[in-house]
Amino acid sequence: MVPFSFADHDLLALGSGALFWPARGALLVADLHFEKASWFAARGQMLPPYDSLATLADLAAVVAATGAREVWCLGDSFHDDAGCDRLPAAAQARLRALTTATAWTWITGNHDSASGAGLVDRCGGTVLPEAVVDGLVLRHEASPDEARPELSGHFHPKLRVRVRGRNVARRCFVATPTKLILPAFGALTGGLDADHPEIVRAVGRGAEALVPVADRMLRFRLAA
C-alpha cells in the first residue's frame, strides 16, 4: 500500500486498484462488475464463468489485509441490476458475509441501476446514488461541474507506456487536486486510456496518472 494525500486526507493506494482510508478504516473500490460473464453468456457470447469468484476472492483478501470496517463500492458493482441473483450460491453467501461484517455501501452506477429499479437487494449492504463522507463526494462518474473533492470510478483508467520496446498497460488512478478516479477492481474489466478525452473532460486539465508500485507512487503527467 502506497501512502499519498488527496484533498488533505491521507490515503493508501493498492496495486489492485483499491483505496484505503486509514482515518475511517474504509476501503473504496470501483467497477467490480460481478456477473459480467453470465450477462454476456445469456446473449450468446461465451466467456469463462469465473469472473465473479475471482473478483470476490480478491476483494475479500483486501478487506482482510486492511482490516476495513467500512467498504464503499463506487458503482457498477454488478454488471446489471439482476447480478446479485445470478451469483453462484457459494459466492453469494461469501458476499453476504462480507456485507454483514462491515458497514458496506453500494453507490449505484450506470450498469447496476440501468433499469431504474432503484434501491434493490445487492446481497446486503446499503444502496445509495452517491454520498458525502468527511467532505469527500463519493459517486460513480466524475462530474465536471463538481467543485468539492470527489472520488469516483466509471472510466476504468489504464496507463499505457512503452518500456524496453514493449507496450505495457497498468491500471491507474487519475488525479487532480479535487478529483480522484479509481481504476476498475473487477477481474473482467477493460480499460480506457488515462488521457482519453472523456476522462480529460470529466476531471479537467492538469491531471496525473498515479501507479502504486511497491513502496512508491509513480506519477505521469497526462497531456490534455
Features:
224 residues; alpha/beta; seven-stranded mixed beta sheet; 5 helices; 17 strands; 32% strand; globular
What does this protein look like?
- By secondary structure, this protein is α/β, with parallel strands linked by helices.
- The protein contains 5 helices and 17 strands.
- The chain has helices at 36-41, 51-66, 83-86, 89-101, 197-203, and strands at residues 2-6, 9-13, 19-21, 26-29, 70-74, 103-107, 126-128, 131-133, 136-138, 150-152, 157-163, 166-171, 173-175, 179-181, 192-193, 208-213, 216-221.
- It has a 7-stranded mixed sheet with strand order 1-2-3-4-5-6-7, with helices on one face.
- A hairpin with a 3-residue loop joins strand 13 (173-175) and strand 14 (179-181).
- The radius of gyration is 17 Å and the shape is globular.
- The two termini are 29 Å apart.
Task: Briefly say what this structure is.
This protein has 224 residues and is of the alpha/beta class. It has helices at 36-41, 51-66, 83-86, 89-101, 197-203; strands at 2-6, 9-13, 19-21, 26-29, 70-74, 103-107, 126-128, 131-133, 136-138, 150-152, 157-163, 166-171, 173-175, 179-181, 192-193, 208-213, 216-221. A 7-stranded mixed sheet has the order 1-2-3-4-5-6-7, with helices on one face.
